[in-house]
Amino acid sequence: IHVSAKAIRSGDGSERHPFLKIGEAAAIAAPGDTVLVAPGVYRECVVPAQSGRADARVTYRSVVPGGAVITGAERVTGWIPYRGNIWRIVLPEAFFGGYNPYSTMIYGDWLDRSVLLHTGQIYLDGQPLREVGTLEECEHPAEEETRLPWYTRQENGGTVLFADFGGADPNVEEAELLVRRNCFMPQENGIDYITVSGFVLQQAATQWAPPTAYQDGLIGPHWSKGWIIEDCEIAESRCAGISLGKYLQPQNENRSIRTGIKDGTQTERDAVCQAVNEGWDRAHVGSHTVRRCHIHDCGQAGIVGHLGAIFSTIEDNEIERINNPQELKGAEIAGIKLHAAIDVVLRRNHIHHCTRGLWLDWQAQGTRVTQNLFHDNEPEEGKPVQGGLCFGEDLFIEVSHGPTLVDHNIFLSTNACRLSTQGIAFVHNLICGGFTYVGEGTDNGAGRFPSPRYTPYHVPHDTRIAGFMTILHGDARFYNNIFVQRPVRPELSSFLHQRGSDTLTRNNLICGTLVYDGYPTVRQYFDGLDQAMRDRVTGKERFYDHLPVETGGNAFFGGAVPCSAETAYFRDEEFEVYVQLMEAEEGQLVLHTNLYERLPRELTQPVDSGLLGCAFESEQRFEERDGADLIFDRDYVGMGRGPHPLAGPFEDPEEAHLVWMTAQEEEPPVSFIDSVRDVRERAVQAIREAQETLQQTEESKEHAERAEREIRIRLGRDDIPEPDPLFVRKLQSDIALTNCGEISFPFEGALFQIQDIFVRGDVCWLRDMQGRRLIELDCAYGIYRSHDHWEMHTMEALDIQMDANMEGMVQTIGTLLCILSRSMAHDAEETCRSISERVNEGLELRGITMRLTPKYLKFIRDKKFISLEDVIYRINRAPMTIVSEVLTSENLGED
Length: 895
Known about the structure:
The chain is of the alpha/beta class. Helix content is 15%, strand content 29%. Helix 8 runs antiparallel to helix 9. The chain is globular and about 90 Å long.
């Protein structure tokens, strides 16, 4: 189904006669359909009418990534000069079509009641103005405010807007108003299996989204299952960007602030129980994927969700500038704010320059936070420091019973983690800020009366409630982390000191596990239980004491302080350590540090589910969400770990580590793919089954084609053909090894004669002389796949006939691919051994050793793994040439 904003008139959705509006396509799109949207601006709210199916999704795709813009704003002209720099316009109620953001206040539970703002917003050339509460403030703004003010009021049945556009003429420049509450969201529950790909979605008049209300966002699935939101830019939502949140429960809708009868904590418990009774389970809700999106400049949260995010995956997103103006204040503000994130995986996200990074509130059970980069989630320099929840941190885990796993992350903000919780495990993280609110922050602040917050815990990997309990604190594990005390900005420490909150149990600024001083170890805890059982007078106190804390293999630098119970740890107080995050080139961040000059290996041990054990209250193991054992055998970038792994996120003790690259259209690096061989085998088998179905009956042909296409899109890996014969895989290499024509080997029933090999890192692409196919091979992990339509950009070229060392390397690469494809007739182990002996003769002169096995090809220099690309640069003896042309599968006769 085709849509184009540039069509002369709306057609029938065909390619020649596209619809003008995406909503026209959304009204008819059925399972298996794809809505292809041409570049342009679409001023509408897209409301999908029909579900897809697991085997036949409904897909909405921008033909050009980022080319189709869906906006909740309208350009408005007719402004009239009022007084001084102020312009005025009057809009009738009919203009807003049933939802007037300029008469609708931002409202809800846990919103700071001093906030009196509307859900509407005014923009000038894409930049938001600042709402003020009176016309006087609009005409005479405070000196410290930098953004231009606007004000609204209702008069005679119309909406009057006043705005200072800074000398610009809003009738000439682009002045826009938020008029739609959402940009892409179903009206009904249960619109499942929708894919939204490649759009810019911006500017929506969303409402505050607490867990006790219907949670809307600029885009969201509205209480359904199986959505994929990918490769989108999502920005300028008045409150939340993406909502994976709760459905409407009229009785509980903002009940605390609306009626004052029950406290918000109790209404949230009511909401959870009501949801369970009304069908909140894996079969109907959750299992969403949000990936490779850029989410920024939202007022409340980049991603929000209560209950609706269960079993979801949030990965490879960049989230920044959330709540930076701090116009909204309250308890629902973060780059990502999730309640009940049961079995949610948050990985490889870059969250920075937000009031707060990631907030996991209640029921973070089976939740895993892994391989994320956090930094600058704190009060902005040069702006007044505000207290309370405005003084943020990278990660906040609140009143949850776990298990909550935090592994292989980089925390660089002043406050690393706020831990008013239990049932947690921190493994292989780099932590450069303090732990706050350990031992506090879990009651309801009633004052004269005890007010502990009892929160639910669940049957493992399920939504059924197993019980409720308050938080005892502890039940924490810290293994193989690096703690680095970095300098704290003076205005932050001064602000906290003046308010008396710079204590170990509140806004602690000391990095390390010191905040857990006095907590028992597991052995001490159970010895105490034995004594308490014998003491009939104080025996019940054991049920309300701190839970145990276990540690091991942690390292402390720069003044970071271990707790008294730390075991097998390393501490260096004299070494001047630095940790600096720097931009290498556009879209790339590199972490520079010298701590590996001192970091030992002998104190650590591998960590797995057996070592981590069970969370105390939920009695659930730390394990994968499918129940499999956790094995931490890969680091932040996918490198394998040894028997004494390095503490922290990186196994490679280098000074510089690439920690973030802006998401590309290509898939994530194969080193990040979990169980890729199993995924590939299942996908190949599924495609074969779909092909067999095609041959059975003509009646099922259409369904089988859609199923095959969707399987390829969802699970496409390695040698699976691409779903679209016109799909071109854009690839980038650094070195091209040319004139390899005399080297051949058996491959998949034919002879593969190598024309060229392109190399980047440990990944290489082999080009066959006979055909246009390109085989991609990750030498370090032994994974390969095929590209039929491709485009290769490369930097340098080397003629291997001029360099015997390179010829040996090409033969080795070809042999590995031959073995992996099971095309070799003779013994693979013996072949690896004989080739290794010959090739290593040339490598050892450069201090390099090659390891060729039937599973991978790796190189070692100075006891460190180095990449195939690095080997080529080090051993090459012939000159390279600069490559200026782009080679594609379509111009092989022209290169």
